[in-house]
């Protein structure tokens, strides 16, 4: 049988009197059931609910309600009120009333999650905090699965998430970063509820912001709605700095390796070679080596100027940079489809490598 965490809840079960302070507290409009058997108190908000409902879903509450009720002499009036409310015991929860409300709605009506925007995150994060704290395993698993669609563990799911962000930006003209909650809040939640699978994508998203956006709340394009890096633990600030450095180094490596990729392909498979004839069977053979060599040299120069010198869009996002580099010689318009498709294949493989490296960058493995 589990033991309730010290200081997290207190239980009141003695007679109520005319000075019972609970009578002055507001009662939740939807979560006050006339046939309820227990009252929960959180931040001066009262919830009248059913012991059977709490016990059915939560091992914590089930064990707590099985414990013998203390006698009057064992109450400490400085910690636990001895009063009943409407003849019912009062359990004081040291949690946000909004979180308690979100949890109870999910328990009574079943979880109904939204689209992972900021409002939805506020509800889901509350459910996750309390389902973790009060050992409601099934609800926690469902909430984590939902949150993981926005903070995923696979590159394919990340790309789907990014497409939603792009559509949001296009349709609303608002910064795409507003589509999802600030990554700082996701990092902190993941640490609080021990959900390490959320951390790689959250840290990666956070690393795409410039340091001025993270640390200077006065910046016009600061991380919207977040309390900024001051809320990150020192160890997570270190993870962020190390990961961001690795991410920026990867962009330099990508641009350099794009040119090296062309050289490797044409040195290994010069025109007329066995490898070249093999590629011909797929319609992928370069017939204009000199022209393509010049093209790749110019593309490397262009990418260097755009991402490393001018610091244009995507300069902090190696997954985005790799995708863009792969499209620089589009197979649909390029005169050399062999080199265009080779570049696309190279970029796809590089993106897979980057995704696998992210936990290592941020010291999460």
From TrEMBL:
Transmembrane segments: none annotated. Residues 1-12 have a biased composition (Polar residues). InterPro entries: BTB/POZ_dom (IPR000210), SKP1/BTB/POZ_sf (IPR011333). It comes from the Eukaryota. Residues 1-20 are annotated as: Disordered. Gene3D superfamilies: Potassium Channel Kv1.1, Chain A. PROSITE patterns: BTB. Residues 36-110 form the BTB domain. This is BTB domain-containing protein.
